[in-house]
Amino acid sequence: MALSEVPWDEEVPLPRLGPVQAKITVALVAVLCFINSYDGDFVFDDSEAIINNKDLKPTTPLTNIWKNDFWGSNLSSNSSHKSYRPLTVFTFRLNYMLAGGLHPVGFHVLNIALHAVISALMVDVFALLIGGLAYDEKTRRLNRAPKTSLLAALFFAAHPVHTESVAGIVGRADLLCALFFHLSFLTYCKAFNKGADKDGGFSVAWIAVSLSLCAAAMLCKEQGITVLGVNAAFDVLLICNVDVYELSQRLVLRKTPFNAREMLRTGLPIRLAFMALGGFFMLYTRWRIMGTGPPAFTEVDNPASFAENMFLRVVNYNYYYALNGWLLLCPWWLCFDWSMGCVPLIKSTTDWRVVWPLLLWCILIGLVGQALCSPDSQQRRTLSLSLVLLVVPFLPACNIFFRVGFVIAERVLYLPSSGYCLLLACALARCCHRWVKYKKIFYFYILAMMVTFVARCAHRSHQWRSEQSLFTSALNVCPLNAKVHYNVGKNLADRGNTTTAISYYREAVRLHPTYVHAMNNLGNILKERNELMEAEQLLSKAVSIQPDFAAAWMNLGIVQNSLSKFEQAERSYWNAIHFRKKYPDCYYNLGRLYADQQRHVDALNAWRNATVLKPDHSLAWNNMVILLDNIGNLGQAEMIGREALRLLPNDHTIMFSLANVLGKQEKYKESEGFFLNALQINPNAAGCHGNLAVLYHRWGKLELAQKHYELSLKLDPKAPGTRDNYNMLRRKLDQRKRHTP
């Protein structure tokens, strides 16, 4: 395939670079844009996909990544999002293993490197789509990169809408998908390098490789399968050089008969059949893995898809498309989440916002018209392929084939943005070619755009460094988004600023009166502040709105227990366990309720269930030891304590409780060892010093007892009983001195 370089490409105000130089330049720009996110934290969705995802840990079998979804839940579970991305999870697991744990730097660095590699690849991708590859006829190698493809690749490398995909570690799925997507396209193009001079010549092996890379892209993110549409369009428009406008005239007006033999001679039907079969097999396999059922989304996730009026539903979908287009045109208003009131629904045709979908379709129809009817065949092909690259990868997110779980997601624009960047670069190249005398103006315009893009990327990636800056930045973009206020409140609460967090949680509930998670978190804070009546009201409302909200049921039980509503608290705990079978924390709190009611056997059973479900549940183990100690069952208390320490050998609270039990059994030496071990781990524990002093007091080691009483009182002068015991020891020591000859 030796395609001539388009003449208008020469007018682009960029230096002529070789392919290697062009790729290095683009990669460096990509790194420059996002380098300040390299030492950022795990933020937003990273918590679920990485921190809480057991599939990343070396102790979990590697085969689990092929059975679970992106978030670590079993695909057969009703709560699964059905996002099957095992290759992405595998790279997370590699990061975890190489870094020796959850250290975000390695995760961020790999994301930045992937974006740089993809941006460099775009030089070749755009050159092929433009049809402007310049080959050395002897070596059949690319000897220079078209200026327009370089410009488009620079726009792609620095587009701010990519920040979420690069600076957010969960965006790895989009990066890997894009990498395999473009490799699939490039290998498909390689199928025509040999035999290009011979009609219909192509390599089946390269097409098979392209299909394999498509499957890999799909295993990184579902969007990857759309590369088959791009490959097919490239084959039709550039390889077979089909004029779509002329072909439509033949079919519709029947001016000249359609020559089927000509199409067969090019081998196009065979290649399309290969891709169709491969695509069908991938979709069928994906459907079977998913459990032959789509994920269940709620109205909160995608309110437009739940609109009863079909016309208004379509209007809102088109409004979403227009907003996505605006993010590509003007990526200034960027937000980590666009749900929950961020984009209010259009409920009437009199809403002025219906202008935006109309404007979008006017622009698209104009571009399609140019792609079909332009007298310049090169412009027709380039426009057509740019629109294909813009629209086809966006199709899975457009709510046409299935309901998606978001309103707008900047991550899904990573692939479609390449089509927009190509359109923009070609438009500027045409303008430079047409108005040569204004070439300097276009040069400064391009330079200003690149500087603005780089600055915006640097600023936005800085906001992605921490949850505090990320969530706060969204308040100006989406002040009506309840989830934004919820996340700001949660971040404040995690940092100990509960007073300010309450105001954000209240605002989240005001904006979205059925926001059960905000009610639950607000109820928790009010519970800690002993505002129990309001906490009970909020949590009761949360479980009435969402009866299967297990965490809210448990927290409601805790509040009711504090209000001495024991029967109601017990029912709430059992409701929580009913909706979440494996709920160790709920069993722990249920045990506390039973202990308060002197139902010792029930309490021990509840805490035992907690430790069975979560063997490292320190509080449950410790409470069992303390309860058995209090009721005088010292032998069983010792057995439980030793069992707990086998599982939690460094838990100083269990050491302390077991030491008390051993001391009561007059096993002084062993008790002393556990006390000293506990103090070695936590040397400032006043209670541990005090109880060790009591042990020495009983043991007759009065000087050591005096030493630890004094240490205990120094750490906590108001320690209950310690002052009395110390005074008793002093009197005993004084008596000993008086009777000593």
The mean pLDDT is 86
Given the structure, what is the number of helices?
Answer: 33
Q: Roughly how many Å apart are the termini?
A: 113 Å
How much helix, percentage-wise, in residues? 55-70%
- What is the makeup of the main sheet? 2 strands, antiparallel
Give the neighbour order of strands across the main sheet.
1-2
> Could you tell me the number of beta strands?
2
Class by helix and strand content? Answer: mainly alpha
Query: How large, in whole angstroms, is the Cα Rg?
Result: 33 Å
Structure description:
- With about 750 residues, this protein is mainly alpha-helical.
- It has a domain at about 5-305 and about 430-455.
- The chain is built from 33 helices and two strands.
- The chain has a two-stranded antiparallel sheet with strand order 1-2.
- Helix 21 packs parallel to helix 23.
- About 45% of the residues are buried.
List the helices and strands and how they pair.
Blueprint: H1 19-34, H2 46-51, H3 86-99, H4 104-130, E1 134-136, E2 141-144, H5 147-158, H6 163-167, H7 172-190, H8 204-220, H9 227-239, H10 244-253, H11 260-266, H12 268-289, H13 310-329, H14 355-373, H15 377-391, H16 417-434, H17 439-463, H18 467-477, H19 482-494, H20 498-511, H21 516-528, H22 532-545, H23 550-562, H24 566-579, H25 584-596, H26 600-613, H27 618-630, H28 634-647, H29 652-664, H30 668-681, H31 686-699, H32 702-715, H33 722-739
Antiparallel strand pairs: 1-2
Helix pairs in contact: 1-4, 1-5, 1-17, 4-5, 4-7, 5-16, 7-8, 7-9, 8-12, 9-12, 9-15, 13-14, 14-15, 15-16, 18-19, 19-20, 20-21, 21-22, 21-23, 22-23, 23-24, 23-25, 24-25, 25-26, 26-27, 27-28, 27-29, 28-29, 29-30, 30-31, 31-32, 32-33
